[in-house]
Amino acid sequence: MKKSLKESIKDYLNELKPQVKNNWLTVGSIYVVMTIVFSVLFLIDALIFKFGLSSLVSMVMLLMYGSSNYWSVLLGMSAVIISLVLLIILEVFAFYIVVALQFGLQDVDQGAQLKVSFQDTWRRIKQMNKNQLLRLYAYNSLFIFLWLLPVMILQSLFGSNQIVVHCLQAAGFLILVRKSLDYSQAIFLYREYQPHFLGQSQRYALKASQRFMKGNKGNLLGQLVLAVIPLALWGAIWGAVTYFGFYIWEPIMIYGGPVIGVLGVCFYLPLFQLVLVKFYAQHKNQKLLETAFRKTFKPVAQLTGEAYKKR
User: Fold this and answer.
1) Higher confidence at residue 265 or residue 245?
2) Tens digits of per-residue pLDDT, 188-241?
3) Residues 6+ apart with CB under 8 A from 88
4) What are the angstrom distances between the C-alpha of 239 and each of 28, 32, 225, 275?
5) Residue 186: which of 224, 249, 143 has the closest Cα?
6) CB-side exposure of 152: number of CA atoms within 13 Å?
C-alpha cells in the first residue's frame, strides 16, 4: 500500500532522528568554533585589504604629484594581494573541514562508527588527499561561475532596466540551484571511486554527479526544502528579535538575536549534511555508479604516455 506524503515525511524524519541526536552537539560545536575562528580571521583579512586598498589609492594620488615613490605603491599592492591569498586559504580550509564532517556523518550512516568526534574530524583533515579535494573545489566553483557568467554580463548590459534585472536575478538563482543540485553528489562519488582518481581530472566527479542526479534533482530538492523550513522560521524569529531590538534600542536583543540565530544555524547544519548522506545512500547502486562513471577515466596507457609511443 502506497504511503501518504505525511507518512513518508514522518518515516523519513524518524530515520534521521537517531543520527541527528547522536551527532548534532559535536558537529554543531565544531561549526561554532569554526564560525568564531574564521570570523576573526576574516575580520583581520578585511582590515589588511582595507589598509592595502586605502594605501594604494593614496599613494597613487601622491605619486601623480611626485610626493610618493613606487615602493609605497608596491606596499599597498602587496597588502591587497596578501589579503586575497589569505581569503582563498581560509575558504579552502573551511571546505576541508566541511568535507571531513561530511565523510564522518557518512560513516555514521553506514555503521562504520557510532558518532563524529573532534579527534576523528582532525584525523580526516590530516589524512585526506588535499590536492584532489582542492581541484574538486576549484572545478566546482569554476563551472558554477561559468554558468552564471552570461547572466552577470546581461545584468551589466541591462542594469538600467529594473524589470530585466529582476528577471535575470531570478534566472541566476534558478541556474545556481540547478547546478548545485547537479554537483551535489560529486564529493560522495569522488570518495566512492577515490583510487581511480589517481592521475585523473577531478571534473570527472562533477560529470558523474550530473549523471547520478539525472531524474533525481526534484527528490533532493524536496528533501532540502523540507529541511530548510525550520531553519527559515528560526531565522525569522531571531531576525524579528534583532529588528525590534533596534526599534526599542535594547542591546541584549540587538546583539543576542544574531548570536543565538547563528548558533542555531551551526547546530542545525548536521541535519543538512545527513540529508545529503541519506540521499546518496538511498539512490546508490552498482548499475547507477557504472552509468555515472561510464567512459570518464582515461586509460593508464594514456596517462603514462605508452599509448602515444611510436611502434
Assistant:
1) 265
2) 999 999 988 888 889 999 999 999 999 899 999 998 998 899 889 988 888 888
3) none
4) 21, 19, 20, 26
5) 143
6) 7
Cell of 14: 524518524
